[in-house]
Known about the structure:
Helices cover 32% and strands 23% of the residues. By secondary structure, it is α/β, with parallel strands linked by helices. α4 links the parallel β4 (92-96) and β5.
Amino acid sequence: MNTEASRTLINPRSSSTRTVSIAGTGCYAPERVMTNADLERLVDTSDEWIYTRTGIRQRHIAAQDEATSDMAAEAARRAMKEAGIEADDIDMIVVATCTPDMFFPSTACFVQKQIGASRAFCMDLSAACSGFLYAMEVGQQFISTASADTVLVIGAEKMSSVLDWRDRSTCVLFGDGAGAAVLQSRGAEYGIMTTVLGSNGNLSDLLSIPGGGSRNPLTAESLEEGMNTLRMAGREVFKHAVTSMSNAVLEALRRCGASIDDVDCIIPHQANARIIQAIGQRVGAPIEKFYLNVDRFGNTSAASIIMALDEAVRNGRIKNNDLVLLVVFGGGFTWAASLVEW
Length: 342
């Protein structure tokens, strides 16, 4: 582990009006646990088949009457408690999700209602599994320019509502959950140092939910075809995920004059253990430097990285002054990497 005194880093945002740090985190997972053995009763699969290809043993599944905003609100309450703030302290709520409660109002508005943050302005952000880091960058910009003092950023997904439970190539991968972070300026140099963002819309057909929008409105026929459920070209997604996340990691380090050896903990998008292993090989990081909980939660899309970050903080894997690297990839394609001095 590197200490603050043993490394010299460049903060690309040191000239901004205010630095931004994560004041508190929280996460929530539904009570119901679906194991690989449970899936064996639904589709032609096995625990061995799923685990060897993904590293997943189980995932949490929301109750039928439990919406994305319900999970998001609970994660928000836990993050607020950790940060020591009240609902009236929140200026802005951003919810990253691809499974909103409704097309509109935004899921963020439903969260606002549940937690009583009447002063906040609210919006959703759609970047699939990359959504949380995109949303965190939006919140960072509002705080650094003094347009907001306290921003609540949430990643929340009810992926079980958009899965085809007959398709073993996708239904075994995903779970439900939510995570939240409170962003504030605390007058210190540590915090969110840089965020690399990228997209490639030319590959949007490789990971999508094709039905339900204005291009393919839902009809009896499209529902019968399953167009309202997730579709993925697994091998192609794997290849692009490894390349894009690896490049984003290296660019974030370059911006800050850091090396992978300076990083104390890497929090990757929890999509697939094999993807994470491949990224480690690309960037020269041993697997021990990564924090993984994909075995217990599966891929929770926009909630994935903040749920893992919250766990890593709470179990002592991340400590004050640690250099933390966050990296994600999602449909769009979208990807991002953030370097944070904790």
